[in-house]
Amino acid sequence: MTDVTVAEKTSKHASSLHQTDVRTKRRNASEARFRFYGLTAIAVGVFALIVLMASILSNGIPAFFQTYVIMNVDLKADVLDPKGNRDPDDIAKVMTFGYTPLINEATKTLVAEIGGEVPGLTDKMVNNMISREAAGQLRRFVLAHPDEIGKTVKFEFLANGRIDGYFKGRVTRESAALDSNVSVEQLDIADALKRDGHLETRFNFAFLTNPDASDQRPEAAGIGVAILGSAYMMLIVLGLALPIGVAASIYLEEFAKTNWLTDIIEVNISNLAAVPSIVFGILGLAIFINFMHLPQSAPIVGGLVLTLMTLPTIIISTRAALKSVPNSIRDAALGIGASKMQTVFHHVLPLAMPGILTGTIIGLAQALGETAPLLLIGMVAFVKDFPAAPPEGFFDPATALPVQVYNFTQRSDPAFYERASGAIIVLLIFLLIMNALAIVLRRRFERRW
Amino acid sequence: MNDMRMVERQVGTKPIKISGRNVQVYYGDSHAIKDVNVDIEDNTVTAFIGPSGCGKSTFLRCLNRMNDTIDICRVEGTITLDGEDIYDKKVDPVQLRAKVGMVFQKPNPFPKSIYDNVAYGPRIHGLARSKAELDEIVERSLRRGAIWDEVKDRLNAPGTGLSGGQQQRLCIARAVATEPEVLLMDEPCSALDPIATAQVEELIDELRETYSVVIVTHSMQQAARVSQKTAFFHLGELVEFGETGDIFTNPKDSRTESYITGRIG
Ligand SMILES: Nc1ncnc2c1ncn2[C@@H]1O[C@H](COP(=O)(O)OP(=O)(O)O)[C@@H](O)[C@H]1O
Ligand SMILES: [Mg+2]
């Protein structure tokens, strides 16, 4: 250090720390700008999310409430059991159609009771206030309790979808005047019934347990079959995709030598993850239905298709999780004479578990929300009967939640639109639960090394 | 180098435990070990020294076939353990590694309890028939690792929660627990502070009574302190191999001399 001339005392930095120099000012300004951009981006995102949630909730929450009319029905023996022998087979011969007059009569009596003298009110209007589902409900009750025949029993019937809509704000007096399906007179009667406590709107648990209902009876439609169908498919996906995906990843990551073949496999798995889901639907249609002749609309086919779709996600995340386990752990185990398999199963896999589970749950969540491939394999059909318990139930027709949403939105009655939003809420809740589960599992298994 | 505490040098001949003949190691096309011949004696600490990247770790990993895990690595020549070729087709590397234990540069305890760390080897090799026997092995190994007193009250605490020096001694205890015949150590003290280093070095000297110990070190002082034999590697070649005292006081090769006097490395 001999060739250093004594530096002059002029520093390049600003002489006083209390003065910001030009460069610093510029730097601070650009930093402030960047923060502003970031905050704006987040604000836009949050705003969009709030609008979305608010619209779904405001549209969908009414689906969880339903209007019921409470009335006494005279279970006339001569109508319900013409032969008078209380033989279940004979009672069953009276079709749903035969029960309608009893309900009509009971409704008429009820309206008369509350003094519902509205000019222009016809019998047909009064009858239409009760859901068409009521007759079926009554019949089921009578078949289950034949000894009640001849007595007068208190029932809670679903109100017609328009009447229900009136109490939820979907139908107004102005719209009713223009709507041939509902009249202002009916709304007057409904108000009177409500005032006297014969009509109430309350939580509708049946929305979650009922099967779908036909176009004329939106008030009875539920998403029970769809929830069950989705649950069955998730079981299939979990049962197939997790073991296959994890086994494939372990083999590729821990055992396979890197050569052109594994390279090709790797590239293809990544590509598979990016294939549009509808392509998997076409594949499922061609292979599982046209070639293997599995039943249409069945959870087994949907589950298989979704398994194919989920596999790449699980494989990619599992491989990432395995890769993130430090090699020193493998060395440690191999170094004391553990075999490759012992090393993987005793040490690497447990450490990779949180990542694997997170990936699996994210894959399942994707599969749960998938619609397009299910449309192609016929899961969009109208299904009124619940599938049986697994494993037979895997082959019974069912729908799935997202498809049910799609299905509801295709119908003309606005009451179905409300139910579509309700089904979306249920779907979102399931997704939230799954993601929360993923976080909990990750926390729980997470270890530092 | 007057600060060196030269350990007693027995210039006796001990049985040869491991011997390498014309060993070549390739990583793909690069020739990492060139024609190495070496005889490692039983009950001796053999030190591998040399500048970084000269192939010390590579050669050490050949001795228990840890290089098998590296796809591109290829080993030629013969290495024998007690006269048996360890690269013979009939040899299962898993069996070999139970006999030739290894301690790594970075302490790598399993993220499990201290007890389970030590018990893992005996468990997979079926060395204990009962829980009591396993407890005994764990205690004995931890004592051999000179860490028993520090951890005896918290055997169920995670091994990863120990300090660096304790972790390394735990790893030594873990290696010892499988009752190997040879112990390979790859720069076991490079991540440790001087006090922990001294403890580990003391331990190595004790281990020599039972095992043949091979230690890679970049510290010549350490080699001089703990080893009886020293091998100097340079650019993949074994330049000089002999009594530690001779290597440090009377190197025959000019490269060895340059290295120990600090001119290369
Ligand atoms: N896994 C590997 N793949 C490719 N080359 C390697 C690998 N490990 C070591 N090498 C190369 O082999 C040579 C010797 O490395 P190494 O044995 O680690 O040296 P040392 O332990 O003496 O510092 C170096 O040139 C290094 O780049
Ligand atoms: Mg090294």
Structure, described:
The complex is a heterodimer of chains A (449) and B (265). By secondary structure, chain A is mainly α. Chain A folds into two domains: 63-204, no CATH class; 224-445, Orthogonal Bundle (MetI-like fold). Chain A has 19 helices and three strands. Chain A has helices at residues 22-60, 77-80, 88-92, 96-113, 123-128, 133-144, 161-168, 173-178, 184-195, 206-209, 224-255, 260-273, 277-291, 299-323, 327-335, 340-368, 372-376, 401-409, 414-445; strands spanning 65-74, 152-158, 199-203. Chain A has a three-stranded antiparallel sheet with strand order 2-1-3. In chain A, helix 1 (22-60) crosses helix 19, helix 13 (277-291) crosses helix 14 (299-323) and helix 15 runs antiparallel to helix 16 (340-368). The model of chain A has no long low-confidence stretch (mean pLDDT 87). Chain B has 265 residues and is α/β, with parallel strands linked by helices. Chain B has one domain: Rossmann fold. Chain B has helices at 56-63, 93-99, 114-125, 131-144, 148-151, 164-177, 194-207, 220-226, 244-249, 254-260, and strands spanning 16-27, 30-41, 45-49, 73-81, 84-85, 100-103, 182-186, 212-216, 229-234, 237-243. In chain B, helix 3 packs across helix 4 and helix 6 (164-177) runs parallel beside helix 7. Mean pLDDT of chain B is 89; it is low at 1-10. Chain A binds chain B through residues 257-258, 326, 328-339, 342, 346-347, 351, 447-449, and chain B through 64, 66, 69, 71, 94-98, 101-104, 106, 108-111, 120-121, 124-125, 160, 171, 174-175, 177-178. Bound molecules: adenosine-5'-diphosphate (ADP) and magnesium ion (MG). The site of adenosine-5'-diphosphate has 11 residues of chain B, from helix 1.
